[in-house]
Amino acid sequence: MPKVTQGHLDARRQQIVDAARVRFASHGFARTSMADLVAASGLSTGAIYRDFSSKDEIVTAICEQSSGEVFPTELTAESVHGMLERIRSRAREHDHARLVAQIYAEAALAPPLAAIVDRQFAELRSTVASLLCDRTDDDAARIAEGFVAVCVGYSQQLAVRGDLDPSPFATALMAILEH
Amino acid sequence: MPKVTQGHLDARRQQIVDAARVRFASHGFARTSMADLVAASGLSTGAIYRDFSSKDEIVTAICEQSSGEVFPTELTAESVHGMLERIRSRAREHDHARLVAQIYAEAALAPPLAAIVDRQFAELRSTVASLLCDRTDDDAARIAEGFVAVCVGYSQQLAVRGDLDPSPFATALMAILEH
After folding, report:
1. Chain B hits for A121, Cβ within 8 Å
2. Residues of chain B neighbouring A172 (CB-CB closer than 8 A)
C-alpha cells in the first residue's frame, strides 16, 4: 500500500465534512444520502467510508468542528456585537444558519445528536458564566441561559428570515447581562 | 351525493392536521409522505386529497393554526412567565417544540414556508411592540426583536434539550423589556 501522510488523511476528512455542510444546509439530512455526499465531495465511495461509516458520523464531525468558533471572549457591548456579527457572517458566507436549523431539527428527533448539541449549549453557557465573575453562580447560570437563548433565536431567524441586522439582538444581550 | 355538513368537513380537516402534527414532530417532513399521513389520520386517500393537494398545504395549515395561541396579552412578569409556561406545556403535551424545530428547518429550505413563518415572527413582534405604549416606535421594534429571539431560543431548546424551567428565560425577557 502507498504511504499516506496524516496531513493528506486530515485534508480528505475535511473535504468530506465541508461538502456535507453545504449539502445538509441546502437539502437537510433526510434528503441527503451517503451517495449524495460521495458525489458532492468528489471523492470515491471507498474514500468516504474509510473515514465515516454513516451520515450520522459526518453530522457529529460537523457539530464538533462548529463548537466554540463564535464564543465571546469578553462581555462588553463591542465584543457581544462582534460575536453576533460572526454568526451573521457565517450565515452569509457559509450558509451556516440554515445548516444549524437542520441540525436542531435532526437533534430533536435523534437523541445521540441531541446529546452533542446539548453539550454545545452547555459549553456556551459555561463560557458566558465564566466571564461573569462579579455574579453569584446562580445569577451567572441564569444570565447565561438567557444569553444563549438570544443567540439561538438570532441564528434560527437568520435561517428563516435571511440576513438581519444584529443590533437589536446585541442590545437584548446587553440588557440580559446588565440586569 | 350524500349531504355533508360544514361541521363534518371542518372536523375531517382538523383530523388530518392533528395527525400530521404528530407525525411531523416525530419524523420530520422529509421522512413523511402523503401515504404516511393517510395512515396516521385513519382517513382514506381520497378524503385527504379533497382537503389538501400536497404535504406543503398541510404544513401551511399547521402553521396558520399555531399562530397567536401563545402571544402575550400584557407584558408584566407574571404574564411573560405565563406565556413561556404555555410554550412549555405545548411542548410537553403536544410535542409542539419538536414540531416547530421541523417547521423552522423546512422553512430554511422552502421560501413559501419561510414567508409564512416570517409573517408569524412579525405578528409576534407587532403584538409585543403594541404593548409597549410608553416607548418610541424604534425602541418598541428593537425590544420586540429581542423578545421574539428569546421565545424562539427557548422553544428550540425545549425541542433539543427536553423540558426546561422557563424562569431564567422569563427573567431575560423582563430584562429586555425594562432595559
Report:
1. 157, 160-161
2. 143, 145-147, 149-150, 176, 179
Q: Is B107 part of the contact surface with chain A (CB cutoff 8 Å)?
A: yes
- d(Cα A79, Cα B146) in Å, to the nearest integer? 18
Pinpoint the alpha helices (H) of B42-179: 45-51, 55-66, 77-94, 96-107, 111-130, 137-161, 167-178
CB contact under 8 A, A102 and B102: no
Calpha distance B86→B55 (Å, rounded): 27
What pTM does this model have? 0.94
Average pLDDT over residues A22-43: 94
**Cell 351525493 belongs to residue:** B1
DSSP calls for B67-107: TTTT--SS-SHHHHHHHHHHHHHHHHHH-HHHHHHHHHHHH
Q: Is B69 on the interface with A (CB under 8 A)?
A: no
Please tell me the total number of residues recorded for chain B in this structure. 179
Q: CA–CA separation, A138 vs B178, rounded Å?
A: 21
Q: Which residues of A touch B172 (CB under 8 A)?
A: 143, 145-147, 149-150, 176, 179
Q: For the beta carbon of residue B133, count every other beta carbon within 10 angstroms.
A: 7
Q: Using the beta-carbon criterion (under 8 Å), do B102 and A105 form an inter-chain contact?
A: yes
Q: What is the nearest CA distance from B104 to chain A, expressed in angstroms? A: 7
Nearest CA to B154 out of A150, A114, A99 is that of A150
Q: Longest C-alpha distance within chain B, in Å? A: 63
Tell me the C-alpha to C-alpha distance, in Å, between residue B26 and each of A30, B30, B95, B122, B144. 13, 12, 8, 27, 31
- Do residues A38 and A61 touch, judged by C-beta distance below 8 A? no
For residue A156, give every residue at least 6 positions away whose Cβ sits within 8 Å of its Cβ, in sequence order, or none: A97, A100, A101, A104, B104, B152, B153, B156
Q: pLDDT digit string (tens) for A140-175?
A: 999 999 999 999 999 999 999 999 999 999 999 999
Radius of gyration over alpha carbons of chain A, in Å?
18
Q: Tell me: the pLDDT tens digits for B114-162?
A: 999 999 999 999 999 999 999 999 999 999 999 999 999 999 999 999 9
d(CA B121, CA B143): 13
